[in-house]
């Protein structure tokens, strides 16, 4: 009885030690990355380059970066999961997407700068997924995705967008039979914009429940697609997600075919 217990305790300590080492290495990597950005003459993190940072400030910044990375991986993972599910249900479109990817990167090793500029069809798939999917709740700075967003259906990342009326005003809408209705809104009134209702509204989207990545080709109602929210407090990680999500989608589809494992009765069913 003693030996198994000692083995379990040893194994647990080893596992904890591995986790601790992983966190320490990640923290060191992020601190080095922050310092590297500060040393660049031109960098995207302008405020880092001009604000003196103490050791504690570095750790705070590294902690914020970790949160953005964690949130970005979570939403990217969920969006990709649904995207692959939809592509398995629509093999014809998956094949079209595959051919497009291979026409751009035949060797399967694209430079990162090409991913967003040269893979528009993949971006349309992502946008479609985020338009259709209701995958995350809006928190202080929550994001989701355009179903790899400009990709086919008005999927949803955030579910509602909270607002407070800054002044007395009115909103003009219509009832179920099309009659115009004027709604008075007093200053200080709390409002909730339903992203789900917006993304599935036939007033803005033709056949909103259908899988149509091509709906994001050319002109489309951008003001009616808010998977990352909108305005000054929109998702900080949107570009990070789009880059990561498109890169993963592109590389996986260039190497693998996504299929339903057993039951083919769900083909073309969403």
Automatic annotation (TrEMBL):
What InterPro entries would the database entry show? Cyt_P450, Cyt_P450_CS, Cyt_P450_E_grp-I, Cyt_P450_sf, Cytochrome_P450_Monoox
What are the recorded GO MF terms, alphabetically? heme binding; iron ion binding; monooxygenase activity; oxidoreductase activity, acting on paired donors, with incorporation or reduction of molecular oxygen
Annotated family = Belongs to the cytochrome P450 family.
What is the protein's given name? Cytochrome P450
Where does the record place a coiled coil?
A: 16-43
The cofactors required by this protein are: heme
Record keyword Ion transport present: no
> What PROSITE patterns does the record tag this protein with?
CYTOCHROME_P450
Query: Which source organism?
Result: Phanerochaete carnosa (strain HHB-10118-sp)
Keyword Oxidoreductase in annotation: yes
Q: Which Pfam families match?
A: p450
Task: Cite the entry's keywords alphabetically.
Answer: Coiled coil, Heme, Iron, Metal-binding, Monooxygenase, Oxidoreductase
Tell me the SUPFAM superfamilies matching this sequence: Cytochrome P450 (SSF48264)
Q: List residues binding heme.
A: 235
